[in-house]
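Technical note accompanying the year-one report. For the benefit of new consortium partners, we illustrate the data format agreed upon in the data management plan: each record pairs a sequence with a structure-token string. No post-processing was applied to the example shown here.
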Amino acid sequence: MMKLNKYVKNSLIAGITLLVLSFYAEHKFYLSVSEVNFNEEKATFEIIGRYFIDDMQEVLQMRYEKTLNLDPEQLSHNIDFYLKRYFSQKFDLRLNGQKVNLNYVGKTFKGDQVVILLQSTGVQDVKGKSLEIENKVLMELFEEQKNLIHLRMSNIKKSAVLISGNSIFKLML
């Protein structure tokens, strides 16, 4: 009987503590997920990045000092110009140290996320080359930002978490 009371008492204390802390500490998790796929038939890298709409809108407004709306129902007419510009500065691929040309293909929306599509051009044989994926998206806005990268190629499936100060994923293909 004594053990049961002690267990109930400790559970009650832990529950109350969590409840009280939940009122005082709001913790937002800053995470993006990008898939980097190599299409062997087309010899292109295809990148699909998922970002929260409100975070992306905030970073674009801060960086370009413009009032921009990324809400799908009230989209700014020039938003693609700023998304293209931002991603050209914050997301890079390099093969053997040479920058790979990435084109902004467009965006779609899924719930509270904006999905950014990028595609490379001019990629030749990649086997035996070093690949660097740099993703600094949203890192100037959120110190705690984590950018998860999933790389998929014919025989390679690797993932990495990139953070401020360590925003490059390096590997041999």
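Partners are asked to follow this layout when depositing records. The mean pLDDT is 86.
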